[in-house]
Amino acid sequence: MSTFPDVFSLAGETALITGGGTGLGLGMARCFVAAGAHVVLVGRRESELRSAARELGSSASIIAHDITEFDKAAALIERAADRAGCPITILVNNAGFHVKKLAVDTSPAEFNSILQTHVVAAHALSAAALPRMIERKYGNILFTASMASLFGIPMVVAYAAAKSAYLGMVRTLASEVSPHGVRVNAIAPGWIESPIFRQVMSTDPERQRKVLGRTPIGRFGTSEEIGWAAVYLCSQAAGFVTGAVLPVDGGASIGF
Q1: What is the CB neighbour count within 10 angstroms for residue 136?
Q2: Residue 41 in contact with residue 62, Cβ under 8 Å?
Q3: Whole-number Å distance between alpha carbons of 162 and 176
Q4: Does residue 256 belong to any structural domain of this protein?
């Protein structure tokens, strides 16, 4: 029987986190490092990756890379393993963006761009990471879903489609690879504090009132609260959890 706190430890794990230089990705990286993992942060903006790595110290490596270069997904997994000095045991599909427009004003090109970054890139990286995980009979893949995966949010139709697609990917992948010792799960964050988020909310008090009004805990979350949930899902403590979508949202998905 595993003992506390060892059951929550990520010692010996190596996590590749896309979009790892800022926001939720960096919050997860902080918690993974605190739990004993080495992290490889992947993103397009090298300056932000370097800043994050300086904060995280020797337990972090960085790779500047565009994940929509799908034909380079396998090379990225190998490069990350070489950079860390050990195989990738955790893949966090976190990178993404959204276009805030009404559905009727969202162009096919904008819609497709979001699907390419969120859905196609996540599939390419998962497909590239899985063979080694299956061979070792061990690994975790984690997707950053969203409240937009769970209920309707205006002005983000492409983002909602992409994040909803994650739920199908999680369930299908889990059913395929869990017999081989690889678990696949998702976190659906609620509204999380960040400098940009605070700026947006400060100029839209009605939106802030609406969000907090449907969040039973009555506050916004922090990126570290998402990070600790990610640590749990990738640790032995969640060893019998696969194909799950965990809302970390202060109750927003059940609030009225």
Answers
A1: 13
A2: yes
A3: 21
A4: no
Total domains, the chain: 1
Which residues are catalytically annotated? 159
Distances (CA, A) of 18 to 2, 92, 208, 229: 30, 6, 28, 17
The domain spanning residue 78 has which CATH number?
3.40.50.720
Would you say 61 and 53 are in contact if contact means Cβ atoms under 8 Å apart? Answer: yes
Eight-state DSSP code of residue 249: S
69 part of a folded domain: yes
In a domain, 251, yes or no: no
Whole-angstrom distance, CA of residue 204 vs CA of residue 33: 35
Question: Which residue range forms the structural domain that includes residue 46?
Answer: 6-245
- Would you write out the chain's pLDDT as a tens digit for each of its 256 residues? 789 999 999 999 999 999 999 999 999 999 999 999 999 999 999 999 999 999 999 999 999 999 999 999 999 999 999 999 999 999 999 999 889 999 999 999 999 999 999 999 999 999 999 999 999 999 999 999 999 999 999 999 999 999 999 999 999 999 999 999 999 999 999 999 987 688 777 888 888 898 999 999 999 999 999 999 999 999 999 999 999 999 999 999 998 7
Give domain status of residue 253, yes or no.
Answer: no
Whole-model pTM: value is 0.96
Whole-number CA gyration radius for the chain: 18
